[in-house]
Amino acid sequence: MSIGEPFVQLNKASVVYRTETGEGRPVWSDVSLAIHEKEWIAVVGPNGSGKSTLAGVLLGLSPISEGTVARYEGLDNGMKGVLQLPEAQFIGDTVEDELNWIPYAQTLPEEARAAWYREVLAAVGLEISPSRSLLTLSGGQKQLFNLAVALATKPKLLVCDEATAMLDPAARMDVLAAVREAYRQGTTIVWITHRLEEASEATRVIGFGEGRVTYDGDPHLFFYGEGEVSPCEALGFDLPFVVQTVRHLREQGVALTALPLSMDELAEAISCL
């Protein structure tokens, strides 16, 4: 999928939070980056590095202290977010209430709306009653439901901040499959995660360290690097299993023609030897 027009442009943006004593605590310093239509961007970094601040800035929840944030006309109001605290995003009391806030739902007759509810929930692997109270959902179900609501609006830009953090492996696969399909249909993805294996889906990686962008570029170069230490390792991370496997193969004299990031890519690269 080719890159399109810029959606959001940050230029020398800084964020300073005020403490109870009135002192400033810098969170971001001099962050410049652009998010373009049709990208899948994985945002990674240690805890407290500033990666979640990006979600707040993009969604207008965290004001910047210096610099500029430009949102381009082509984005309109088509930006949705899935944040770490799902309850903070609820508007209604029940599943049905929440889905009915979506404008498309309001155009559907009652019978068609019931079928649409099932379709929206099934997209993320949920099987729950539309009359169910949101407060009775588990933490993982709440996160899945927030993603279902966001995807149902068919956003132009979807910002996910640790969207799989509370999910078991099967649910994580459901989430990634749903987001992958949204990307295939043209949604731009900003995927903030501490699970490095999820970055294999991305077309671009942005690494944060101590409130600054330490890497912005190709995912393969982020993990494999060009020298002894890759940008991934420079951020203090252990390399994902797939990348470690390729390194061990190289040490044994087995040179792969590709640089795989996923298990499927690794299997294909080995089969071509």
UniProtKB/TrEMBL annotation:
It is found in: Cell membrane. One of its GO terms (molecular function) is ATP hydrolysis activity. Keywords: ATP-binding, Cell membrane, Membrane, Nucleotide-binding, Translocase, Transport. Gene3D superfamilies: P-loop containing nucleotide triphosphate hydrolases (3.40.50.300). Residues 10-235 form the ABC transporter domain. The keyword Transport applies. The keyword Cell membrane applies. It holds the Pfam family ABC_tran. One of its GO terms (cellular component) is ATP-binding cassette (ABC) transporter complex. It is a peripheral membrane protein. InterPro entries: AAA+_ATPase, ABC_transporter-like_ATP-bd, ABC_transporter-like_CS, ABC_transpr_CbiO/EcfA_su, ECF_ABC_transporter_ATP-bd, P-loop_NTPase. Belongs to the ABC transporter superfamily. This is ATP-binding cassette domain-containing protein.
